[in-house]
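Working notes for the structural subgroup meeting. M.R. asked for a predicted model of this chain before we commit to crystallization trials. I am recording the input and output together here so anyone reviewing the notebook later can reproduce the run.

Input as submitted:
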Amino acid sequence: MPQEINHQVIDEKTGNAMLLGEINREGMQQLGSWFLEEYEAYQPDTGVIDEIKSLKAEFPRVFIVLGTWCSDSREQVPHFYKIMDAIGFPENLVFAVGVNREKKAEGFCLDDYDIHLVPTFIFTRDGRETGRIVETPSTTLEHDLLNILLGPASIH
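Returned structure, recorded in C-alpha cell form:
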C-alpha cells in the first residue's frame, strides 16, 4: 500500500501540526501561512539565476529532508522553491521528506543519508551525490546551487 503524502501528526512539543513522510509544496502550503510568506518575501539574486539558466546543465535530482516544525526549514525550503520556479526546475525531480524532531520519518530509512540538521538538500545525478546544502546556505541558496551545478564539491 502506498504511503500517504502530506501525512499530518501533532508535534508533542508545540501542539501544532507537522508533516511526516513524503511531502510536497501543496502540503506545506496547507500547513500554514509560513510557506507563502517566505516564498513571496524571498528575492533571489537575478544575476545568479541568469547564470544558472545559461549553464543549460542537466538538472540534478533533489532530495530534501526537512522539518515543518523547524525555523530553518520554514525559511529555506520556500526560498528553494522560489529559485526552482525562477530557473524552470522540473518539480518532479524534487522529492521531499518531512521528519520529526529526532530526524525520523516512518517508512523511510534516512540513516544512509547522514542527516543531522534540517533542512538538508541533497543533489544527485545518476544515483550519485553531487552536492548538498545543510541547514543554511554558505552564501545564498541560489549561489550554492550554482556551485553545485558547476562542480563536484559539496557545500556544507
